[in-house]
Amino acid sequence: DQQGVAAKQVVDQSIRQIHELVGELRGSGESLEGLQQDVKGIVGVLDVIRAIAEQTNLLALNAAIEAARAGEAGRGFAVVADEVRALASRTQQSTGEIQGMIDRLQNATSHTVGTMLRAGEKGESTRNHANQAGESLDAISALIGTINSMNAQIAAAAEEQTAVAEEINRSVHHIADAVDGVASDAAQGAQTARELNGLAEQLQRLVGQFRI
Questions:
Q1: Distant-in-sequence, close-in-space partners of 75: CB < 8 Å, separation ≥ 6
Q2: What is the rounded average pLDDT for all residues in the chain?
Q3: Which of 12, 81, 140, 165 is the least crowded, having the fewest Cβ atoms under 10 Å away?
Q4: Total structural domains within the chain
Q5: Which of 3-12, 106-115, 166-175 has the lowest mean pLDDT?
Q6: Which is nearest to 120 in space by CA: 36, 38, 35, 30?
């Protein structure tokens, strides 16, 4: 019974730990899903930056064309337009690199989310199995309690039957003693009857002697 109680405590503790683990997995999965949403937001911002860079590059190209038409007077403006185009090009290159990193991050987070979801499902299944094991252990403990109660009842009945058997044994001894007494009295009565019969015969002989 004590072993059953100890086993029940171990199972209960395991169930609590599994519940905590499942909760942590769900929380981590939700955090990663939130991170995915943030990454999608960053991708949107990058798209805007990329569009601005492309537009800036186009405007700088148009400005360079107009500066070339202006000749010597537009040379300074052409230099500025070239710098703007270079800046737009570097911006596009940087956004491309950032896009690559974000793609890798998205793939990693997607894989991690999938792994954690599967782990959460396994944890949920394990929790269900642990709950079933706890319920089975409760049923076994209840059955053991019932068996112990029945054993106690059987032991009490056995003690009562032993007492009854002892009482019957004593009664049998009393009856045997009484039977022995009756037999002894009967033997004594038979002896007395034989003696009386002998006396009767003697009396008959005596009476016969006095007849005329």
A1: 67
A2: 78
A3: 165
A4: 1
A5: 3-12
A6: 30
**Helix axes of 2-70 and 75-209: crossing angle, nearest 10 degrees:** 170
Q: Please check whether residue 15 is in contact with residue 130, taking contact to mean a CB–CB distance below 8 angstroms.
A: yes
Identify the CA nearest to 29 among candidates 150, 115, 128.
Answer: 115
Q: Is residue 127 part of a domain?
A: yes
How far apart (Å, rounded) are the C-alpha atoms in residues 103 and 100? 5
pLDDT band, very low/low/confident/very high, at 190 (cuts 50, 70, 90): confident
SS3 210: coil
Residue span of the structural domain in which 95 resides? 2-175
CATH number, position 88: 1.10.287.950
DSSP 55-75: HHHHHHHHHHHHHHHHGGGGH
- pLDDT of 119 > 70? The answer is yes
